[in-house]
Amino acid sequence: MEADETDALQPRHPRARVIENAVDTRRDVKRRVPGAASSSRATGVSREIVSAKVKVEVLPPEPIIPESDIEDGDPDPVYVSEYAQEIFEYLRKSELKNMPDPHYMDRQKDLTWSFRDVLVDWLVQIHATLKLLPETLFLCINIVDRFLSARTVSLVKFQLVGVASLYLAAKYEEISYPMVSDLVKCCDDGYDEHAILVAEAYILKSINFDLSYPGPMSFLRRASKADKYDVQSRAVAKYFVEMVSVDWNMITVPPSLASAASIWLSRHILKRGGWTPSLVRFAGHSQTDIIPVAHKMVDYVIRDRDQGVQHEHFSKKYSGKNYHKVRQYIQDWAKNLPNMTVQQFERLMVKDQ
Protein backbone atom coordinates (compact mmCIF):
# COMPACT_ATOMS: atom_id res chain seq x y z
CA MET A 1 0.00 0.00 0.00
CA GLU A 2 1.31 3.42 -0.83
CA ALA A 3 1.19 5.87 2.04
CA ASP A 4 -0.95 8.40 0.17
CA GLU A 5 -3.48 5.68 -0.74
CA THR A 6 -3.90 4.01 2.61
CA ASP A 7 -3.95 6.63 5.36
CA ALA A 8 -7.35 5.24 6.40
CA LEU A 9 -5.65 1.94 7.16
CA GLN A 10 -3.33 3.43 9.81
CA PRO A 11 -3.74 1.34 12.98
CA ARG A 12 -4.21 2.84 16.41
CA HIS A 13 -0.99 1.31 17.66
CA PRO A 14 2.15 0.48 15.66
CA ARG A 15 2.59 -3.24 15.06
CA ALA A 16 5.94 -3.22 13.38
CA ARG A 17 7.88 -4.05 16.51
CA VAL A 18 5.76 -7.20 17.13
CA ILE A 19 6.88 -8.80 13.87
CA GLU A 20 10.43 -7.50 14.20
CA ASN A 21 10.79 -9.10 17.64
CA ALA A 22 9.39 -12.40 16.33
CA VAL A 23 11.91 -12.43 13.50
CA ASP A 24 14.76 -11.64 15.88
CA THR A 25 13.68 -14.47 18.16
CA ARG A 26 13.57 -16.91 15.21
CA ARG A 27 17.03 -15.91 14.22
CA ASP A 28 18.40 -16.35 17.73
CA VAL A 29 16.84 -19.71 18.44
CA LYS A 30 16.99 -21.08 14.91
CA ARG A 31 14.91 -23.13 15.84
CA ARG A 32 -30.75 -39.54 17.40
CA VAL A 33 -31.42 -42.72 19.55
CA PRO A 34 -34.46 -44.79 18.33
CA GLY A 35 -36.85 -45.99 21.03
CA ALA A 36 -37.17 -49.66 21.94
CA ALA A 37 -40.04 -51.69 20.43
CA SER A 38 -42.92 -52.68 22.69
CA SER A 39 -42.51 -56.00 24.48
CA SER A 40 -45.65 -57.50 22.90
CA ARG A 41 -44.48 -56.63 19.42
CA ALA A 42 -41.02 -57.98 20.14
CA THR A 43 -42.52 -61.27 21.37
CA GLY A 44 -44.61 -61.61 18.21
CA VAL A 45 -41.64 -60.98 15.98
CA SER A 46 -39.61 -63.55 17.90
CA ARG A 47 -42.31 -66.21 17.38
CA GLU A 48 -42.39 -65.48 13.65
CA ILE A 49 -38.65 -65.89 13.43
CA VAL A 50 -38.68 -69.18 15.32
CA SER A 51 -41.59 -70.70 13.32
CA ALA A 52 -40.49 -69.46 9.91
CA LYS A 53 -38.32 -71.51 7.59
CA VAL A 54 -35.86 -68.95 6.40
CA LYS A 55 -33.87 -69.58 3.26
CA VAL A 56 -30.60 -67.72 3.23
CA GLU A 57 -29.33 -66.86 -0.18
CA VAL A 58 -25.59 -66.58 -0.39
CA LEU A 59 -24.65 -63.81 -2.78
CA PRO A 60 -21.45 -64.01 -4.80
CA PRO A 61 -18.74 -61.53 -3.81
CA GLU A 62 -18.62 -58.27 -5.70
CA PRO A 63 -15.96 -58.21 -8.38
CA ILE A 64 -12.85 -56.26 -7.59
CA ILE A 65 -12.58 -53.28 -9.89
CA PRO A 66 -9.04 -52.48 -10.99
CA GLU A 67 -7.77 -49.03 -10.15
CA SER A 68 -7.57 -48.12 -13.82
CA ASP A 69 -11.33 -48.83 -14.18
CA ILE A 70 -12.47 -46.57 -11.34
CA GLU A 71 -15.28 -44.33 -12.54
CA ASP A 72 -16.35 -40.87 -11.42
CA GLY A 73 -19.94 -42.05 -10.83
CA ASP A 74 -21.29 -41.46 -7.35
CA PRO A 75 -24.84 -42.31 -6.13
CA ASP A 76 -25.04 -39.05 -4.17
CA PRO A 77 -26.43 -36.36 -6.53
CA VAL A 78 -24.78 -33.67 -4.43
CA TYR A 79 -21.44 -34.66 -5.94
CA VAL A 80 -22.72 -34.01 -9.51
CA SER A 81 -20.24 -36.62 -10.68
CA GLU A 82 -21.38 -36.32 -14.30
CA TYR A 83 -19.79 -32.89 -14.36
CA ALA A 84 -16.62 -33.77 -12.43
CA GLN A 85 -14.31 -33.61 -15.43
CA GLU A 86 -15.53 -30.16 -16.50
CA ILE A 87 -15.46 -28.85 -12.94
CA PHE A 88 -11.84 -29.77 -12.39
CA GLU A 89 -10.81 -28.45 -15.78
CA TYR A 90 -12.27 -25.12 -14.71
CA LEU A 91 -10.53 -25.28 -11.34
CA ARG A 92 -7.17 -25.87 -13.00
CA LYS A 93 -7.66 -22.77 -15.13
CA SER A 94 -8.69 -20.75 -12.08
CA GLU A 95 -5.67 -21.79 -10.05
CA LEU A 96 -3.25 -20.50 -12.66
CA LYS A 97 -5.13 -17.24 -13.01
CA ASN A 98 -4.93 -16.55 -9.27
CA MET A 99 -1.28 -17.32 -8.57
CA PRO A 100 0.78 -14.52 -6.95
CA ASP A 101 3.92 -12.99 -8.36
CA PRO A 102 6.84 -15.01 -6.91
CA HIS A 103 9.08 -11.91 -7.04
CA TYR A 104 6.79 -9.46 -5.26
CA MET A 105 9.12 -9.19 -2.28
CA ASP A 106 11.67 -7.44 -4.47
CA ARG A 107 9.30 -4.45 -4.64
CA GLN A 108 8.58 -4.33 -0.90
CA LYS A 109 10.63 -1.69 0.90
CA ASP A 110 10.01 -2.73 4.53
CA LEU A 111 9.28 -6.44 4.17
CA THR A 112 11.31 -9.60 3.71
CA TRP A 113 10.42 -13.27 3.32
CA SER A 114 11.19 -13.71 7.03
CA PHE A 115 8.41 -11.26 7.86
CA ARG A 116 6.05 -13.28 5.66
CA ASP A 117 7.06 -16.43 7.55
CA VAL A 118 6.11 -14.77 10.84
CA LEU A 119 2.78 -13.43 9.54
CA VAL A 120 1.74 -16.73 7.94
CA ASP A 121 2.67 -18.71 11.05
CA TRP A 122 0.58 -16.29 13.15
CA LEU A 123 -2.34 -16.77 10.73
CA VAL A 124 -2.02 -20.55 11.20
CA GLN A 125 -2.33 -19.99 14.96
CA ILE A 126 -5.37 -17.70 14.68
CA HIS A 127 -7.00 -20.03 12.14
CA ALA A 128 -6.63 -22.97 14.55
CA THR A 129 -7.85 -20.90 17.51
CA LEU A 130 -11.01 -19.88 15.65
CA LYS A 131 -11.48 -23.48 14.36
CA LEU A 132 -11.98 -22.46 10.75
CA LEU A 133 -12.06 -24.66 7.65
CA PRO A 134 -8.80 -25.59 5.90
CA GLU A 135 -10.03 -23.81 2.76
CA THR A 136 -10.17 -20.55 4.70
CA LEU A 137 -6.48 -20.67 5.55
CA PHE A 138 -5.40 -21.47 2.00
CA LEU A 139 -7.54 -18.68 0.55
CA CYS A 140 -6.31 -16.25 3.19
CA ILE A 141 -2.65 -16.84 2.40
CA ASN A 142 -3.37 -16.57 -1.32
CA ILE A 143 -5.11 -13.22 -0.75
CA VAL A 144 -2.12 -11.94 1.23
CA ASP A 145 0.34 -12.95 -1.49
CA ARG A 146 -1.78 -11.56 -4.32
CA PHE A 147 -2.29 -8.29 -2.48
CA LEU A 148 1.43 -7.95 -1.85
CA SER A 149 1.95 -8.65 -5.56
CA ALA A 150 -0.17 -5.58 -6.36
CA ARG A 151 0.64 -3.13 -3.53
CA THR A 152 3.59 -2.01 -1.48
CA VAL A 153 2.91 -2.42 2.24
CA SER A 154 4.65 -0.85 5.20
CA LEU A 155 5.67 -3.04 8.10
CA VAL A 156 3.36 -1.20 10.48
CA LYS A 157 0.37 -2.31 8.34
CA PHE A 158 1.54 -5.82 7.54
CA GLN A 159 -0.39 -7.60 10.30
CA LEU A 160 -3.49 -5.60 9.36
CA VAL A 161 -3.25 -7.06 5.85
CA GLY A 162 -3.10 -10.56 7.34
CA VAL A 163 -6.07 -10.21 9.67
CA ALA A 164 -8.22 -8.46 7.05
CA SER A 165 -7.39 -11.23 4.54
CA LEU A 166 -8.40 -13.86 7.09
CA TYR A 167 -11.70 -12.07 7.69
CA LEU A 168 -12.33 -11.86 3.95
CA ALA A 169 -11.50 -15.53 3.39
CA ALA A 170 -13.70 -16.61 6.31
CA LYS A 171 -16.67 -14.67 4.94
CA TYR A 172 -16.20 -16.44 1.61
CA GLU A 173 -15.61 -20.00 2.84
CA GLU A 174 -17.32 -20.36 6.23
CA ILE A 175 -21.00 -20.89 7.03
CA SER A 176 -20.52 -19.05 10.30
CA TYR A 177 -17.55 -16.71 10.19
CA PRO A 178 -15.95 -14.86 13.12
CA MET A 179 -17.02 -11.37 14.14
CA VAL A 180 -14.69 -8.46 13.55
CA SER A 181 -14.51 -8.01 17.32
CA ASP A 182 -13.05 -11.53 17.59
CA LEU A 183 -10.28 -10.58 15.20
CA VAL A 184 -9.61 -7.38 17.13
CA LYS A 185 -8.97 -9.49 20.23
CA CYS A 186 -6.67 -11.78 18.25
CA CYS A 187 -4.61 -8.71 17.41
CA ASP A 188 -4.39 -7.68 21.09
CA ASP A 189 -6.52 -4.61 20.24
CA GLY A 190 -3.78 -3.35 17.96
CA TYR A 191 -6.40 -2.43 15.37
CA ASP A 192 -10.01 -1.33 15.78
CA GLU A 193 -12.97 -2.73 13.84
CA HIS A 194 -13.06 0.21 11.45
CA ALA A 195 -9.44 -0.31 10.41
CA ILE A 196 -10.06 -4.00 9.61
CA LEU A 197 -13.20 -3.23 7.58
CA VAL A 198 -11.49 -0.49 5.59
CA ALA A 199 -8.51 -2.75 4.94
CA GLU A 200 -10.85 -5.55 3.84
CA ALA A 201 -12.49 -3.30 1.23
CA TYR A 202 -9.14 -2.03 -0.03
CA ILE A 203 -7.69 -5.53 -0.37
CA LEU A 204 -10.80 -6.74 -2.20
CA LYS A 205 -10.50 -3.87 -4.65
CA SER A 206 -6.79 -4.51 -5.16
CA ILE A 207 -7.33 -8.16 -6.17
CA ASN A 208 -10.19 -7.16 -8.52
CA PHE A 209 -12.84 -8.77 -6.29
CA ASP A 210 -11.63 -12.19 -7.47
CA LEU A 211 -11.88 -14.89 -4.80
CA SER A 212 -12.07 -17.85 -7.19
CA TYR A 213 -8.78 -19.37 -6.02
CA PRO A 214 -9.69 -23.08 -5.72
CA GLY A 215 -7.20 -24.15 -3.04
CA PRO A 216 -5.61 -27.59 -2.78
CA MET A 217 -8.27 -29.39 -0.70
CA SER A 218 -10.63 -29.99 -3.66
CA PHE A 219 -7.80 -31.55 -5.64
CA LEU A 220 -6.67 -33.57 -2.62
CA ARG A 221 -10.15 -35.03 -2.12
CA ARG A 222 -10.34 -36.02 -5.79
CA ALA A 223 -6.92 -37.65 -5.73
CA SER A 224 -7.94 -39.55 -2.59
CA LYS A 225 -10.64 -41.26 -4.67
CA ALA A 226 -7.97 -43.23 -6.50
CA ASP A 227 -6.12 -43.73 -3.21
CA LYS A 228 -9.27 -45.50 -1.86
CA TYR A 229 -9.57 -42.72 0.71
CA ASP A 230 -6.67 -44.04 2.75
CA VAL A 231 -6.92 -42.19 6.07
CA GLN A 232 -3.24 -42.35 6.93
CA SER A 233 -1.92 -41.17 3.59
CA ARG A 234 -4.51 -38.38 3.60
CA ALA A 235 -3.41 -37.23 7.05
CA VAL A 236 0.23 -37.08 5.97
CA ALA A 237 -0.72 -35.38 2.69
CA LYS A 238 -2.52 -32.59 4.57
CA TYR A 239 0.73 -31.73 6.31
CA PHE A 240 2.57 -31.37 3.02
CA VAL A 241 -0.29 -29.43 1.40
CA GLU A 242 -0.25 -26.85 4.17
CA MET A 243 3.53 -26.77 4.06
CA VAL A 244 3.34 -25.52 0.48
CA SER A 245 1.25 -22.54 1.60
CA VAL A 246 3.41 -21.51 4.54
CA ASP A 247 6.81 -21.91 2.88
CA TRP A 248 7.62 -19.07 0.49
CA ASN A 249 10.00 -21.30 -1.46
CA MET A 250 6.94 -23.10 -2.89
CA ILE A 251 4.91 -20.00 -3.69
CA THR A 252 4.95 -20.87 -7.42
CA VAL A 253 3.40 -24.35 -6.90
CA PRO A 254 -0.26 -24.41 -8.03
CA PRO A 255 -2.77 -26.13 -5.71
CA SER A 256 -3.43 -29.14 -7.95
CA LEU A 257 0.28 -29.92 -8.17
CA ALA A 258 0.70 -29.38 -4.43
CA SER A 259 -2.06 -31.91 -3.67
CA ALA A 260 -0.68 -34.42 -6.19
CA ALA A 261 2.84 -34.16 -4.78
CA SER A 262 1.47 -34.47 -1.24
CA ILE A 263 -0.38 -37.70 -2.04
CA TRP A 264 2.62 -39.06 -3.94
CA LEU A 265 5.04 -38.35 -1.10
CA SER A 266 2.71 -39.59 1.63
CA ARG A 267 2.20 -42.87 -0.24
CA HIS A 268 5.94 -43.25 -0.59
CA ILE A 269 6.58 -42.60 3.11
CA LEU A 270 3.83 -45.06 4.11
CA LYS A 271 4.92 -47.58 1.44
CA ARG A 272 1.54 -47.64 -0.29
CA GLY A 273 2.96 -48.40 -3.74
CA GLY A 274 3.75 -46.45 -6.87
CA TRP A 275 1.99 -43.72 -8.81
CA THR A 276 -0.72 -45.71 -10.65
CA PRO A 277 -2.59 -44.65 -13.82
CA SER A 278 -5.69 -44.03 -11.68
CA LEU A 279 -3.73 -41.64 -9.48
CA VAL A 280 -2.38 -39.86 -12.53
CA ARG A 281 -5.94 -39.52 -13.82
CA PHE A 282 -7.51 -38.26 -10.62
CA ALA A 283 -4.61 -36.16 -9.44
CA GLY A 284 -3.99 -34.70 -12.87
CA HIS A 285 -0.19 -34.86 -12.73
CA SER A 286 2.45 -37.38 -13.70
CA GLN A 287 5.37 -38.44 -11.53
CA THR A 288 7.67 -36.30 -13.66
CA ASP A 289 5.65 -33.20 -12.71
CA ILE A 290 5.63 -34.18 -9.06
CA ILE A 291 9.30 -34.96 -8.38
CA PRO A 292 10.58 -31.32 -8.19
CA VAL A 293 7.79 -30.28 -5.81
CA ALA A 294 8.21 -33.35 -3.61
CA HIS A 295 11.93 -32.55 -3.48
CA LYS A 296 11.14 -29.08 -2.09
CA MET A 297 8.84 -30.65 0.51
CA VAL A 298 11.56 -33.03 1.68
CA ASP A 299 14.03 -30.14 1.67
CA TYR A 300 11.72 -28.27 4.10
CA VAL A 301 11.63 -31.36 6.35
CA ILE A 302 15.42 -31.57 6.32
CA ARG A 303 15.76 -27.86 7.15
CA ASP A 304 13.37 -28.39 10.06
CA ARG A 305 15.62 -31.23 11.22
CA ASP A 306 18.96 -29.51 10.82
CA GLN A 307 18.23 -25.80 11.37
CA GLY A 308 15.31 -25.93 13.79
CA VAL A 309 11.60 -25.24 13.52
CA GLN A 310 10.84 -22.71 10.80
CA HIS A 311 7.13 -22.14 11.54
CA GLU A 312 6.43 -22.72 15.24
CA HIS A 313 2.62 -22.85 15.21
CA PHE A 314 2.47 -24.89 12.00
CA SER A 315 4.85 -27.45 13.49
CA LYS A 316 2.98 -27.49 16.80
CA LYS A 317 -0.33 -27.99 14.99
CA TYR A 318 0.81 -31.14 13.18
CA SER A 319 2.61 -32.47 16.24
CA GLY A 320 -0.70 -32.80 18.13
CA LYS A 321 -3.05 -35.75 18.44
CA ASN A 322 -5.73 -34.07 16.31
CA TYR A 323 -3.40 -34.43 13.35
CA HIS A 324 -2.05 -37.87 14.31
CA LYS A 325 1.38 -36.42 15.15
CA VAL A 326 2.32 -36.65 11.50
CA ARG A 327 5.17 -34.17 11.80
CA GLN A 328 7.05 -36.40 14.22
CA TYR A 329 6.37 -39.41 12.00
CA ILE A 330 7.81 -37.61 8.99
CA GLN A 331 10.81 -36.40 10.96
CA ASP A 332 11.54 -39.98 12.00
CA TRP A 333 11.34 -41.05 8.36
CA ALA A 334 13.74 -38.34 7.27
CA LYS A 335 16.23 -38.54 10.13
CA ASN A 336 18.92 -40.17 7.98
CA LEU A 337 18.18 -38.42 4.70
CA PRO A 338 21.02 -36.29 3.33
CA ASN A 339 20.69 -33.03 1.45
CA MET A 340 20.02 -34.00 -2.16
CA THR A 341 19.68 -32.47 -5.58
CA VAL A 342 16.48 -33.09 -7.53
CA GLN A 343 18.21 -35.81 -9.57
CA GLN A 344 19.54 -37.59 -6.49
CA PHE A 345 16.13 -37.34 -4.84
CA GLU A 346 14.43 -38.82 -7.91
CA ARG A 347 16.82 -41.77 -8.06
CA LEU A 348 16.32 -42.45 -4.35
CA MET A 349 12.53 -42.28 -4.52
CA VAL A 350 12.24 -44.43 -7.66
CA LYS A 351 14.64 -46.99 -6.18
CA ASP A 352 12.54 -47.34 -3.01
CA GLN A 353 9.25 -47.84 -4.86
TrEMBL record:
GO terms for molecular function: cyclin-dependent protein serine/threonine kinase regulator activity. It holds the Pfam family Cyclin_N. Gene3D superfamilies: Cyclin-like. Keywords: Cell cycle, Cell division, Cyclin. It comes from the Eukaryota. The keyword Cell cycle applies. Residues 25-44 are annotated as: Disordered. Residues 121-205, 218-299 form the Cyclin-like domain. Residues 214-332 form the Cyclin C-terminal domain. GO terms for biological process: cell division; mitotic cell cycle phase transition. PANTHER family: CYCLINS. Belongs to the cyclin family. This is Uncharacterized protein. It comes from Dacryopinax primogenitus (strain DJM 731) (Brown rot fungus).
